[in-house]
Amino acid sequence: MGYLDLFLYLMHWPYAFEWGDSPFPKNADGTIRFDFTHYKETWKALEALVAEGLVRVLGLSNFNSQQIDEILSVASIPLGSSDHAWRDPNEPVLEEPVVLMLAGKYGRSPAQILLRWQVQRKVICIPKRILQNIKVLDFTFGSEEMKQLNALNKNWQYIVPMLTVDGKRVLGDAGHPLYPFNDSY
User: Where does the signal peptide begin and end (predicted)?
Assistant: First the structure.
């Protein structure tokens, strides 16, 4: 393999699916078929790619704080700063009244409002549409607007893979021992 021209190579989940032809391999009962390689082993392999000059920077996504600490305990290089709709369609965060109100007030999309909220909370965000979303840096929410957005907390994750098994929606990956969302961040 030659150089992978990415600023950041992101380990998206702390667990993997079984290798094969399907990106989401399933068992006969509809549950996900996992690989059980520990994420610390994956991290060390990614660091080897950096050492070989094949990748520039590594990062993590969807890891809880304990898992991040475990990566940091083995990391020899610093952490860097899919178009699948994983969220439950019955949880339309982009349609929350306060988000829509602020979008109208600031002339921004609901996604830009939520991105600005994260930036203002000092949460590192990696947007997909960089040119469109750079526009979240030219305005600031007042303290009352931040309180309204913070009040949207429903104590659930927005990025949680869901599956339908036997006609019921279930957490698609919660059965893996390294699933990050059983613990709070």
Answer: none
